[in-house]
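Tutorial handout. Part one gives the primary structure; part two gives the three-dimensional structure as tokens.
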Amino acid sequence: MKITVREGDTLWYYSQLFDVPLQLVLDSNNNTRKSIEAGEELEIPGYIKKEINLDKGESLWSIATKRHLPLDSLFLLNGSRDADSINEKSTLFIPIKVSKSFIQSDKPYDFNTLNKDIRRLTAIYPFIRQETIGHSVLGKPIKELNVGNGPKKVHINAAMHANEWITASVIMTFLNDYLGALTHRKTIRGLTMAPFYDQVTLSIVPMVNPDGVDLSIHGADVEDARKVIELNHGSRDFSIWKANIRGIDLNDQFPAMWEEERKEGESDPGPRDYGGEKPLSEPEALALADLTKRKNFDRVIAIHTQGEVIYWGFNGQEPPETEYIVNEFSRVSGYDAERYVESYAGYKDWFEQEFHKPGFTLELGKGENPLPLTQFHEIYQKSLGIFLAHLYL
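Part two.
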């Protein structure tokens, strides 16, 4: 919500007026001066401005009382310090606190839905930082979202496999809840979120494989539909499709025993398990690898479905604290923890091999992919503890 700064007001005053942490106001406005001048536009995170009609007999005073709003916030939004000058108006602007999640969880979560949610989140919580880390085969931007200013850098990515698109809506729901709790000084499961903003920088890539996700949900409406249908063995049903649009499995693309995984996987492009002709040949996998090298994360989680299991460790190259972390993840979620599996060339494998830091693959839910949306609430509640532990550990 944008307001116009009045003569004599301070950033601290606006922080107190709307009950929003001062640091979030500063970061929402890229303000390093901690000062403002009259006439400047100022973003107040966590609010939207709504126009309402005044009923007969209503006044600024009665609206403030009925809606539990600070009277001066109404003066501010309506360009006056005089209540009597407003009570004859037919319309009034009021601040509305955004407190509920609006991320779509009742329909398949495609690329357009993700972008719509990112636009809305960044409008309401302008202290989010976003970056395009690369582009898919079809040129769709792959977005990274960052929250926080802390020295500890943790990362989560989702929807690397096309028919696991539910993971994108799960992590976006957590992001929405986290932003709301930070802004409005709320707790999540009894934990105060405010300290994490200064302690942790959270990086999220919610949809690594946007082309594949749209293919899995909408079918072959791409330009070269004939080719991708051939890769799908002639079928127009892409619900089981895991790969990117070229038929290459992005989680078999990382240079961590890639040759061994290549021998065990499919020999040609298709819906799943083909690792390509060489590691990091696909722009989506390369973008994620480049981001990881550049940001030097302290810990990463790759979200997949299904199995309610957390995979950790890779050929003994994970640090000792990985076991402690995964045990806490398991405790707060009820998920099983499994150290080594005969599967290689995944993002988590490469991260542990390359950086010798804790990495985890989180398999949400149970059943067959794509998991039904009727599982969303249960999946979110079980995984929420892991996302929180990712911040506090």
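Part three, for discussion. The two ends are 34 Å apart (CA to CA). The chain has two domains: 2-97, 111-212+277-392.
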